[in-house]
């Protein structure tokens, strides 16, 4: 209960208010799930029956893990300020399988810090301040690990240099990330890691790769090797001899990868030694196990002024790729490397034609020269499922920024949406958020961002609050089958026919047709027959200025995803009718704003029985058709972000399978009681339902306190219910801060009201007792007064029943006539009492005294002149009061002395209650009353007693 106010009279009201608030808080506490926020700020939740504790980003300097469940299996302590890890810190968490301490400014680890973690499988110590000093990082810290399989220690201050001393305790390691030395050297001690299959080397400090750099891996069973984020290894094109076969002068020796025939996946990123130089390293992989090559940013750096060399480096010819084309690759990704021409015949190399599954040449300049030959040759590939050709001018746009809050089990349905089919996701090396690639049984690459998914257990330890947040897709740069915007067509008319491989599953056409280009009558045909498109599952047609569809799309019987975002779209209502397998339809940012006015969204989707995901982001929508999904029973995700909805535009009962509703960036101010109730009931029916309300103009005002309580009580909202809201004073507040003190906010909103209610109740009680006492004390007098009033109501009122005989209403400018003429006649000759405001008003409110005087007067005499009607402020009020005071008991109460010129200006409401005999006309106010006027006035006042 809040502190009592100084006045004891307010306790009753405040007690009632506090009882309501405390009862609400008690109910909220009991609705929390079994796991939640522990006392130290960690968020504890359960994923697939495994307890995860997320204690990241709390700025801890010391750890107290006593509040965590002892059966916690995943502990995330990233981005804190721990400095030193003490002995036995984790000894009570014996069930831990994954421990992440990335980016926590750790400088020292005591020898027995990890005591009790014999079950640990994954340890992340990357991006800290650890050095090779044995006093701060003793190799014996690993003696407690018996099942450790993955270790991440890259981006530290030299601990990788003494890695060989750790190996005796790390013989079960299968995945390792580490820093590379200046002269990259993998020593023979690595042969002790007999289970090592995945090695990532952060090459920030590497300045040279020699022919013995990987000597320690010559007899290993390594499958995946990733060399990422070179920053200091560069070659000056002017000093490089392209025709030389000698490798002694190169920073990256051509013999570096000899004897590594077991490698299956090789990735090299940001190694700017030149495209033609990088391909020479593959001479030792012919007839090897290598099947996946990922090259990113391998061109010469732009700060060298060598136009001839850089030009030649962007042209891929048969002679320069003779080693690479002899390898049976299933995936080749060579991106962001300024490649602008590929010689004919390279793409259709026999080795690639029979084995290539995915070809990614995005982020290059293939639209300038030589773009037609590789495009035409892809039809000869027997197993090609995806080809990506794009130019470097495509902007870094997240095509799917709203696909963030998805349940874990969705990952298995169509992972391309969440990861946009990337071969990798790279970030600046200072955060070390690189990927770890793992092989699955189908010789494909599984992609997991290093900072979150460093393990083969993505479905167990993926998410926070059972919600997956995918990395930015940068999909516009990495994923499309592309033409040059203005290619050098020989004529202005004709049709370009592009035959698709029968195995093609993904077709991407992004930024292909622009409204200001000179295509003339050119047209492009991608799909010719139904057989050709029967295996197509993903069709991305994004960022084109036009899409005209006058018929049906036929033959795409296996299509699951169709994206026509960012187009000027002109299609018929039945355009999507023949897509029986379509699950994902994306209609984001349609450029013609009247599209959804001309075409009914309900009609567009009504013949898509398998539709599960609909995205209409950024289309200025403020209304959805009723019963929109009446024929789409499987709809589970509805993305309505960046529109103009001010409430929930669908009826929740009509979408029984909806699991995610995105209303981010709309005009929602609050949800009313009906909407809150319907959403809560839907969550009860669909336990994994989530609602996104970020970036709305929510209000945190007292009138919507119930909505704020609902935000605090609902565990299915994005951002954990933490939003920006506007207060009554126009301040921008955080609901998270506001809801931490719900009692205080409730008291602020309702405390004053309850205080007033308490005073009113106290006053009523006092009045009740006072009235009861008076009735008992003066019962006889009250009975006599009531009888007198009752009897009086049935007879005409007399002048004796009033305190004053005549009330005179006049303008200030007419006071001379009243004082010298009228009062002389009334008071001296007729002997009546009068009320004149110049004489009889006392201190206080003028209007109140005037009304009281009129109420106590038997007759109301109004002097209606030009001054009275036009210049007197109270004239209208006095005339209205006078007209309303006429009753059956006093019908002749109002008398008017009217100046002859104002006879026709008497207001209608006053004229209606005046009899003709009670309207006395005055020719002017400067002379005395004549006989007729005096007699008429006397007749109006003749009942005086």
From TrEMBL:
Stored PROSITE patterns: LRR, TIR
InterPro entries per UniProt: Leu-rich_rpt, Leu-rich_rpt_typical-subtyp, LRR_dom_sf, TIR_dom, Toll_tir_struct_dom_sf
Recorded GO MF terms: signaling receptor activity
Major subcellular site: membrane
Signal sequence segment: 1-25
TIR domain: residues covered: 802-945
Membrane-spanning segments: 754-775
Keywords linked to the UniProt accession: Glycoprotein, Leucine-rich repeat, Membrane, Receptor, Repeat, Signal, Transmembrane, Transmembrane helix
Membrane topology: Single-pass membrane protein
Protein name: Toll-like receptor 4 isoform X1
Gene this chain is encoded by: LOC106061593
């Amino acid at each position: 209960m809040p502190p009592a106010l100084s006045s004891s009279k307010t306790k009753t009201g405040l007690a009632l208010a506090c009882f309501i608030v405390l009862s609400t808080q008690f109910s909220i506490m009991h609705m929390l799930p079994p796991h939640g926020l522990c006392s130290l700020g960690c968020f504890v939740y359960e994923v697939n029956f495994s307890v995860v504790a997320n204690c990241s980003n709390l700025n801890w300097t010391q750890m107290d893990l006593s509040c965590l469940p002892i059966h916690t299996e995943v502990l995330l302590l990233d981005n804190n300020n721990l400095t030193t890890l003490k002995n036995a810190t984790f000894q009570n968490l014996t069930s831990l399988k994954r421990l992440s301490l990335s980016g926590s400014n750790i400088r020292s680890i005591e020898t027995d810090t990890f005591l009790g973690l014999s079950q640990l499988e994954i340890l992340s110590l990357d991006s800290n301040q650890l050095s090779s000093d044995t006093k701060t990082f003793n190799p014996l810290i690993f003696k407690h690990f018996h099942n450790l399989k993955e270790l991440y220690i890259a981006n530290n201050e030299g601990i990788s240099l003494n890695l060989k001393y750790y190996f005796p305790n790390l013989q079960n390691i299968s995945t390792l990330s580490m820093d590379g030395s200046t002269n990259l050297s993998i020593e023979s001690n690595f042969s002790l890691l007999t289970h090592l299959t995945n090695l990532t080397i952060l090459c920030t400090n590497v300045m040279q790769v020699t022919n013995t750099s990987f000597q320690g891996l010559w007899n290993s069973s390594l499958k995946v090797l990733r060399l990422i984020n070179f920053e200091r290894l560069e070659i000056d094109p002017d000093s490089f001899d392209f025709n030389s076969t000698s490798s002694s002068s190169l920073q990256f020796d051509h013999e570096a990868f000899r004897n590594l025939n077991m490698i299956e996946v090789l990735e090299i990123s940001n190694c700017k030694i030149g495209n033609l130089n990088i391909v020479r390293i593959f001479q030792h992989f012919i007839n090897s196990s290598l099947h996946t090559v990922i090259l990113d940013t391998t061109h010469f750096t732009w700060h060298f002024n060598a136009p001839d060399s850089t030009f030649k480096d962007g042209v891929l010819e048969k002679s320069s790729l003779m080693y690479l084309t002899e390898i049976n690759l299933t995936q080749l990704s060579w991106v962001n490397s300024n490649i602008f021409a590929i010689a004919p015949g390279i793409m259709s190399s026999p080795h690639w034609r029979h084995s290539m599954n995915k070809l990614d040449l995005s982020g290059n300049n293939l639209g300038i020269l030589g773009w037609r030959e590789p495009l035409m040759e892809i039809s000869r590939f027997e197993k090609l499922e995806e080809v990506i050709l794009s130019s470097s001018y495509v902007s870094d746009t997240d095509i799917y920024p709203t696909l963030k809050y998805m349940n874990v089990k969705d990952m298995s349905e169509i992972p391309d949406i969440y990861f946009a089919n990337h071969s990798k996701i790279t970030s600046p090396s200072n955060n070390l958020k690189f990927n770890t690639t793992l092989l699955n049984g189908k010789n494909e690459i599984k992609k997991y961002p290093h900072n979150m998914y460093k393990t083969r257990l993505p479905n167990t330890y993926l998410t926070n609050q059972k919600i997956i947040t995918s990395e930015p897709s940068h999909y516009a740069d990495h994923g499309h089958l592309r033409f040059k915007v203005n290619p050098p067509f020989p004529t202005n008319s004709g049709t370009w026919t592009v035959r698709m491989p029968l195995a093609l599953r993904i077709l991407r056409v992004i930024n292909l047709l622009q409204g200001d280009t000179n295509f003339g009558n050119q047209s492009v045909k991608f799909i010719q027959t139904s057989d050709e498109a029967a295996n197509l599952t993903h069709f991305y047609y994004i960022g084109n200025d036009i899409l005209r569809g006058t018929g049906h799309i036929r033959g795409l019987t296996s299509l699951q995803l169709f994206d026509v975002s960012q187009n000027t779209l002109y299609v018929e209502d039945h355009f999507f009718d023949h897509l029986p397998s379509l699950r994902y339809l994306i209609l984001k940012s349609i450029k013609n704003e009247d599209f959804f006015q001309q075409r009914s969204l309900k009609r567009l989707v009504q013949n898509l029985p398998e539709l599960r995901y609909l995205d209409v982001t950024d289309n200025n929508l403020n209304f959805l058709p009723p019963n929109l999904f009446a024929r789409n029973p499987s709809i589970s995700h509805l993305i309505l972000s960046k529109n103009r909805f001010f409430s929930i535009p669908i009826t929740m009962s009509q979408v029984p399978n909806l699991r995610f509703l995105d209303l981010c960036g709309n005009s929602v101010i609050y949800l009313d009681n009906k909407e809150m109730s319907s959403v809560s009931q839907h969550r009860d029916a669909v336990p994994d339902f989530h609602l996104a309300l970020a970036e709305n103009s929510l209000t945190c005002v007292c009138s919507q306190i119930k909505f704020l309580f609902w935000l605090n009580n609902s565990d299915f909202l994005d951002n954990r219910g933490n939003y920006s809201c506007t207060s009554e004073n126009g301040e921008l507040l955080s609901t998270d801060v506001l809801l931490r003190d719900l009692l205080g906010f409730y008291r602020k909103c309702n405390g004053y009201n309850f205080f007033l209610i308490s005073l009113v109740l106290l006053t009523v009680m006092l009045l009740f007792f006072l009235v009861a006492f008076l009735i008992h004390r003066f019962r006889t007098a009250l009975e006599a007064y009531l009888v007198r009033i009752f009897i009086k109501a049935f007879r005409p009122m007399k002048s004796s029943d009033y305190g004053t005989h005549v009330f005179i209403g006049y303008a200030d400018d007419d006071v001379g006539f009243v004082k010298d003429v009228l009062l002389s006649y009334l008071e001296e000759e007729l002997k009546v009492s009068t009320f004149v405001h110049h004489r009889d008003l006392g201190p206080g409110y003028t209007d109140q005294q005037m009304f009281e005087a009129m109420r106590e007067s038997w007759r109301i005499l109004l002097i209606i002149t030009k001054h009275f009607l036009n210049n007197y402020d109270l004239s209208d009020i006095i005339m209205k009061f006078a007209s309303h005071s006429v009753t059956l008991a006093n019908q002749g109460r109002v008398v008017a002395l009217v100046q002859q010129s104002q006879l026709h200006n008497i207001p209608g409401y006053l004229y209606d209650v005046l009899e003709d005999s009670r309207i006395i006309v005055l020719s002017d106010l400067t002379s005395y009353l004549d006989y007729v006027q005096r007699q008429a006035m006397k007749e109006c006042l003749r009942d005086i007693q």
